Amino acid sequence: QVQLVESGGGLVQAGGSLRLSCAASGRTFSSYAMGWFRQAPGKEREFVAAISWSGGSTNYADSVKGRFTISRDNAKNTMYLQMNSLKPEDTAVYYCQWVGSSGTYWGQGTQVTVSS
Fold it and tell me: pLDDT tens digit string along 38-50?
């Protein structure tokens, strides 16, 4: 089992920045990759960014490329999402995902609201 806890969400004006964190606990040694997804009201959950276990490989949705940066600190079992130049359309609940040999796990989500 893996437990994930997101933090760092909040209310920010357009053009501002936020840094999300995802702390993992449990059987985290068997991770393949981690990622961030988001879900806006009335919309399906969508992919935002992903990072490999080593951190050497990252992938981003086109909508956030150049604005968001995903990273991880395996010593702290924590993944981050630095979000810059935020737009109102980035408003959503952001979810952390962990993928490993024991399955796929999700955090409870953290709300990000960007005002215009």
Answer: 999 999 999 999 9
